[in-house]
Design brief:
Its EC number is 3.1.3.3. Pfam families: Hydrolase (PF00702). InterPro entries: HAD-like_SerB, HAD-like_sf, HAD_sf, PSP. The protein contains 15 helices and eleven strands. The protein is an alpha/beta fold. The chain folds into two domains: 110 residues, Alpha-Beta Plaits; 188 residues, HAD superfamily/HAD-like (Rossmann fold). A hairpin with a 2-residue loop joins strand 2 and strand 3. The longest helix has 14 residues.
């Protein structure tokens, strides 16, 4: 069965008229529930169990994902049900949330890519166990990021620059990153990386993926060996926030049209400075700090979130 037949059957089943998808009234919120096609029955059962048929205003497909658009809001109990069903949702507090952002900043490690760069260096330099524990504590906010980074860098002193070259070749990006970059380019959204990782990898991704910007820490090498130091100021939580707001001003973008995505404690100030701050498969402390998160899906989930405005103003067919 084709994706479009599934979508059309759902529209008929819920008696949703084509091209009648609309925003709720000014004072009302709206939300989406989205997931891969294989979770279709789970979403339908959730809708039926909670008597939400009358609040459903649209259904469409984004890649291999189903998006259900509702007027109204979710209760705390319903949010818990969705989490247990491994279904992601996003709540739009107003029309500004629905507009396609013009600036989207992504964390790199464990967000844009599937690994933590410093842990990968440690693995290749036979220091994995020592470094991974410190990384975990830093990302969960248990220890200061600057202290933890310096501690890890000193432990990695002497690793050869060839390790970085290998990582550039082997880096694995998130399953949805290419689709997200293409979508952002289509609608003139500036997308790039603000990372507590390293420029060698961030700049490589910027070049290969044609991103608009990349910021990260610069490792210092002498005679092909890492010195244990970085050049310049550490890109920590506050620095990430400063870079994000600087980009907003340089691109002359309204605060209502900026978004940021990340997974670690050092992303929280940046996420909270964005109109849309989204936790991505994040640590508990991050999920508790922002209103919305992607827990179960790839970065295609961001396209699902941004698709609502495009469906409503009919500027893109899904």
């Amino acid at each position: 069965m084709s994706f479009f037949k599934i979508r059309n059957d759902l529209m008929k089943s819920f008696k949703i008229e084509e091209n009648k998808i609309r925003l709720p009234s000014q004072d009302d919120t709206c939300f989406i529930i989205y997931s891969k096609l294989e979770f279709e029955l789970s979403i339908i059962k959730f809708i039926s169990h909670n008597n939400m048929e009358n609040y459903l205003n649209g259904v469409w497909l984004v890649k291999n994902m189903l998006v259900f658009f509702f007027h109204g809001n979710l209760t705390t109990q319903q949010k818990s049900q969705l989490f247990e069903l491994q279904l992601d949702y996003f709540i739009y507090k107003d029309s500004n949330d629905i507009a396609m952002p013009q600036l989207l900043a992504l964390d790199m490690d464990s967000t844009a890519i599937k690994t933590e760069c410093i842990d990968e260096i440690a693995y290749l330099f036979n220091k994995k166990d020592e470094i991974s524990l410190i990384t975990k504590e830093a990302m969960e906010g248990q220890i200061n990021f600057d202290v933890s980074l310096n501690k890890r860098l000193k432990a990695l002193k002497g690793f050869p620059i060839q390790i970085i070259e290998k990582m550039k070749h082997d880096v694995t990006i998130d399953d949805g990153l290419l689709d997200l970059v293409k979508f952002c380019n289509e609608f003139n959204c500036n997308i790039g990386l603000i990372s507590g990782g390293f420029t060698d990898i961030a700049d490589h991704l910027k070049e290969t993926l044609k991103l608009n910007f990349s910021y990260a820490n610069t490792l210092n090498f002498e005679r092909g060996k890492f010195t244990g130091n970085i050049d310049g100021r550490i890109v920590n939580a506050e620095m990430k926030r400063e870079i994000f707001l600087k980009l907003r001003d340089e691109f002359q973008i309204n605060q209502n049209n900026v978004a940021a995505v990340g997974d670690g404690a050092n992303d929280i100030p940046m996420l909270m400075s964005a109109n849309l701050g989204i936790a991505y498969k994040a640590k508990k402390i991050v999920n508790e700090s922002v209103n919305n998160s992607i827990n179960f899906n790839s970065l295609v989930g961001l396209i699902c979130i941004f698709s609502v405005g495009k469906v409503i103003d009919n500027t893109k067919k899904f």
